[in-house]
Amino acid sequence: MVNGIRVSDNPEWPFGRLDGLDADDFREAAYEIFFTACRSSPGFGGRTAITYYSPSEGGDGSGSGAGHDSGNSWSPRKVPGQGVGMAVTSRVKRALGLKMLRRSPSRRANSCGSLPSSPNSGTGGSPRMNFTVPGRGRRPMTSAEIMRRQMKVTEQSDNRLRKTLMRTLVGQVLEDMNINGATFEMQQVSDTLIKLANVTEELAAKEKEIFSTSLKKWHPVAVGVAAVTLHTCYGTLLKQYLVNATSITSETVQVLERAGKLENMLVQMVVEDSVECEDGGKAIVREMVPYEVESIILGLVRQWIQDKVKIGRDILERAKDTETWNPKSKNEPYAQSAVELMKQAKEAVDNFFELPISITEDLVHNLAEGMEHVFRDYIAFVESCGSKQNYVPTLPPLTRCSQDSRFFKLWRTSSCTIGVYSDNHRFISNANQVRPSTSRGTQRLYIRLNTLHYVLSQLHAMDKTLTLNPRVVQSTTIRRSKSNLSSSISFFDQSRTAIRAAVQHVSEASAYRLVFLDSNYVFYGSLYVEDVENARIQPVLRVLKQNLTLLCAIVTERAQPMAIKEVMKATFEAYLMVLLAGGSSRVFCRSDHHMLEEDFCSLKKMFCTCGEGMVVEDVVDREAETVEGVLSLMSQSTEQLIEDFNTVVCETGQIGVASAMVQKVSMPPTTGKWSRTDPNTVLRVLCYRNDKTANLFLKKTFHLAKRRG
Q1: Angstrom distance (rounded) from CA 65 to CA 78
Q2: Domain span at residue 647?
Q3: How far is 137 from 403, CA to CA, in rounded Å?
């Protein structure tokens, strides 16, 4: 019982049956997690986290002190702060939480008497006379042992866990030592090669001044032979050094630059010594295998660039598996994977300009191209959120209104306020308590928008750094002044273009999700259902205002205009679908036109005033032209609509003018692009017209079925 609540000994297992795993496996896994998490707790191995004690440490850390052998740094010692029952541990076991069993006092020490050999022993008597064997004292259990027994974990499993931790710690220590040792060794080798180059250069100078003068009697190019020999010897050592130089460092560059100077000096010696030769010393120079210092440095730089690009690629792949599109805070309303990726890219650019080499424009372009590939893939990942078609409802089949149907009988006899609304209309009674209907999925799409704009802003800063850095050596083929350098070079144009397209796509998808999915119950699912006069647009406006307010609170300022514009376009599209594809629950009369027009004007006004003019009024008017064209059709008489339909059918070439009145007209295809000049749009206005003439025309021309009440 806990606080009056009975706790079950065997709580229900929520994961179903997992083949190959039983309760013991899960128990051991839980024990390993719990034991590892409690490493720094008393009774689990110490009061602090795992620490490696070097044998060279002095003081208490060396294990020396009173009662201990100072020569043995790994000898057991009493750990300060341990309570009763805490065993004395060696530093290895203390570091890994392995407790030595504290033996009970010696039988000899606990005997009532003492051995004869003891200084305190009495004289005479048998040595076994006063010797009694007391029972072994029980050692208090440590916290780890209590936990192990409570979780029913065997000692073998516990020992296996402790040995694993021991191997892990020792492996980490050895790895650190190997890395430090390898770094120190490379530095030593680099210094040695630089000194050797100096010595080789001095030796070549002495060879030229002292020995070659005499050796010319026996060989015409004695200096050249000596230079080739020295060049080959140093080249052999340089080649061995470069085998281990897998990355570019200042030491490696210094060695290569010094080798290049030595090579130039030796080649110059050969050329000067071969002036009298017929080929000018070309034959002996060909025997000198070039060091190719510049190409080696260039290869190391390109390898460095590839390594940095690979790090960015790893971040991208990890983001595909772990990104949840939840912002870290209000100050950072974008994906953390974007922060990590752009931080790594910025560090790569900064480190690139710290390389101890001459930075050419070609190298800058190589770095920018590699990074842009990663950026474009990340942008495509952010953009992969579906399309607007995923949220647009399927168009219902076309039917004709029937005044004899049960629906219209009910519509004529029903009260205007009772019994008319479906379950979707329950929110109308609570209109003053309308809340935003933006779902978590839509909010995550907003975070994608913010992420794209964040990446775009970082690209601008990175582009500026790559363009205006003073270390960049301009190309010899293209001379540019600093004043027009920024306008002539742009490294991430393709990424910017991809971001603009992605922003458009994500804004569109989020808008259609907001309108057709999140707000469906109040918009497409309820507006003008069963009666225009009693299902006006005011509830829709309230919910839309709340949703737009939330949008402006989440989406960054730069992304808001596009996002709100797409919401407006989706709203107008939903309004058209209510009028032209609203299903059997909607019907319109010509007299409803003034109410429809008034509602749409209110809808336009809301977007014009949203966000302090976030969407320009001209843009609103331009997007509203299609809806206004359909509303103008709904204001016409049925006879005029039929005439307009025959006219547009003839204009589209489906049937001749003379035949239109006597022949059956084929059903115009549904394009989804509503327009007052589109035959399918005019036909849909007739299908939703509550009129006997329209009903008769649709029956004779297309044999459309009646609506079911």
Answers
A1: 10
A2: 636-709
A3: 100
